[in-house]
Structure formats: C-alpha cells, structure tokens
Amino acid sequence: MPAVLQQHTLASPASFSGIGLHSGNKVAMTLLPAPPNTGVVFRRVDLESRVEIPAQIGNVAETDRSTSLSRGNAKVQTVEHVLAALYAFGVNNAVIEVDSSEPPVADGSARQFCKMIREAGIEAQAEHVEPIQITTPIEHTHNGSVISAFPHERFKITCTSSDKGGRFTQFFSIELTPETWETEIAQARTFCFYEEIEYLIKNGLIRGGSLENAIVIRDDAVLTAEPMRYREEFVRHKILDIVGDLSLVGAPLCGHIVAVKPGHAANCGLARRILQQARRPLVAAQSFSPPGDKPAKPVSTPAKQPIQPHPSQVSDETTAPLDSEQIMQILPHRYPFLMVDQVTRIEGNEITAIKNVTIDEPYFQGHFPGHPIMPGVLQLEAMAQVAGILTLKQAGNAGKIAYFMSAEKVKWRKPVKPGDVLQIDIELLKARSKVAKARGVCTVGGDVVSEAEITFSLMGNE
Length: 462
What we know:
Shape: globular
Low-confidence stretches: 283-319
CATH class of the largest domain: Alpha Beta
CATH superfamily of the largest domain: lpxc deacetylase, domain 1
Number of strands: 25
C-alpha cells in the first residue's frame, strides 16, 4: 500500500509568453501557488468572469490531437504538457493563469515548463495526499490504441508507438521520478506526419505550428529545426502526453502503465477507469454501512477539488463526483433510459454531468439508419434527469422522485452523434416544496447543442 504523501505547491509565481500550438494565438501564462486541496486549476483571465477550470478528468471536452478541458462555455486546450510537468515534479496544488484558450507551446516539449517550475521553487504543505494504487489490471482500447494499468509499487510507463502503417516504431520504458522525468522525457517534442498536415489545418488545428515547435515526418525523412534530442524522441513524447493526461485523476499514481500506439482519447479513457477502480472501496463501504454511518475514506480515493455548497441547499453527503452506481441510488431510471453516466460537479445550485453517446444506444437503430443522431427529446430528458439529481441531493428531498412536468425556451442547435461526450450543465432557478425549475445547457466539445428551461414536481416514493 503506497505511503501517504505531503501535498506541494509552488513557492512563487513564474510566467512565460508565446503562442498556442493549435489556436495560433499569442498567450501569456503564469503558474501561481495555491492552497492545500485546491488541485491544479486553469484560470482564463482574458474572460470577464475569470472562469476557473479544474484539471480533472470529468472536465475533459475534446481529445483530438490534444486534451481540452471545459467548464460551461469556457475552454482551455492542449493542457497535457504543462500538466505533465507539474505532476512529474510532485506539484499537487497550482493555478495556471492564461489570457487565451491555450497554454504557450514553447518548443513543443515540456522543457520550458520545467524551467518555470524550477524558477518558482516547490514548497511542501502541511496537508497530505493519498496516492491511487492500481490493485487489479485495467485495460482501455480506442481506435487501435491499447493502454493498460497493472499493479506496481511506483509509477512506471512502458510504451510502443508507431503510425498506422507501422513506420517509425519505437519502444521505451521508464520509472518516473522528478530526475528521470526532466532528463529522459520532458525535452521530447511533439511531432506529426506530413500527410496529416492538410487534415489538421482544415480542422482548425496547428495554426501556431512550425519546425520551431514540432517535428514533421515526411516519408522516411525527419524534418526538424535542430538535431533529435533522443534516439526515441517520438515514443518519449507519447509518454509525456500519457503523464499529462493521467494527471487528470487528481492524485499521484502507483502502477505500471503499458501503452501501444497511445492517443489522448485512450489516455483519458484509462484515467476514467482508474478513478472508477479507486472509488469502488468507498462505494462498497457506503452500500454496506448501517444507516447514518459514514465509512472511513480509503487510501485509494484521490484528493478532490473541495466543493463548498451552501449548507441550506445540499445535504452533508459526498455530492460529487458520482458514478453510475451512485446515480442509480438517486434516480429510478435504468438502462436504456438512464441518460447520465457520471456527475462531475455539484456546487450550490449548479451541477455538471456527462453522457457518453455510443453507437450501441438502442435509438440509433431507427434514428436514423446510416445517419445516427441522438434525438433532441432525449437530450431534454438528460437535462431533466440531471436537474432531478441536483434537487434530490438537497437536504430533505432524499427518497423522493422528480417528475418531468414541462419545458420552455427549448432550442436544438447542433446534432449529437455517436462518439460525442454530452456535457449537461444545470442551474436550479427556483425550488419550492413540490415544484422546481431549472435551466439546462448541453454542450459537445464546448459547443452548445441544446438548451431549455424545465419544470418538474417532487413527490414521495410511496
């Protein structure tokens, strides 16, 4: 069982300016110290509301060529390099201020971020963090990527990378420490294949890309502004990305990660499965505890962003995140009509939940063959279910059932297709003893796909 560790933050601020790899925008980034139990949080200082987006797996919005996080309509993309540097140096709590939608790419590696952390210094904090221990093997596959986690007393990554045709196959294995991270992984630069460039440009990506911050592979030639930094630089950069994506579990990891042709979608999928395994002891303890008992927190449960709802609004139970098993303890819905996979955030009168839209959904058989689209009414149902969770988690509502009554100001803006991750954000507008009203917004990758105001009644389950 891993030892409990002290939390750490930065000793002072550190700043750097550059351009974003995919957005091409100029951006200034500052790393700031943060109090214990904050976690790592991105702050968009260019937005009037200065939105803060916790670096948590539940906030992942996109994984195409980089990992993007979102909260409401605010987004920050290509977060994996700076997150990897903070994680590898053992920084648990930090605020990352950016004045654009993307951190600066620097030279395409994490070298500049390591320099910033060294300049800022690292400071121990009195509070502790409990590492996540991989207890049984976990595997996740996605579009040809295979990534697994196995029990191991420290954090080790073994990776094989290549393109779809098997070109430039490389292998590397490393046990990660702050020292091995900085010398063996952090300086590996991002790369792409020449034939991919047209696709990336057409999809609004790599607007800030150049040979100064990326390596381009054309046929058997490697185009780079400087000599290769490592013999296996490509696979080492893949390991860098894995570290950044897995940091989204929110705690240090003890396990051996084995990856074959990894990508951001597969990395984040494994991170979700790791968190599911870590929460099982707590779920089991809650299921078998006598009423009124509160089970002790197991060492495998990661430190989470503290949630501070108003005491008159929410009960004293743990309110987020909630997995599907916990959701089914609140809602009466079951497959195939349960439209919520995970609740990632509950704060006062607001809640955020996720629905993973897969091709296996039964309604895709007839809506429509050859052109599958999630029905808008089911998006509306998802909003109603999430609003029901928020209301039923309030003190005094336990055991009741929320009945959908009406919907107003309903708008469907974009189609939702298989493979999309539907994020459902709900704000409770008013709640009386038996009737509640809420506003819901569904987004995919930060784009609004539907919205509505819904009214529902609360009745006892008799």
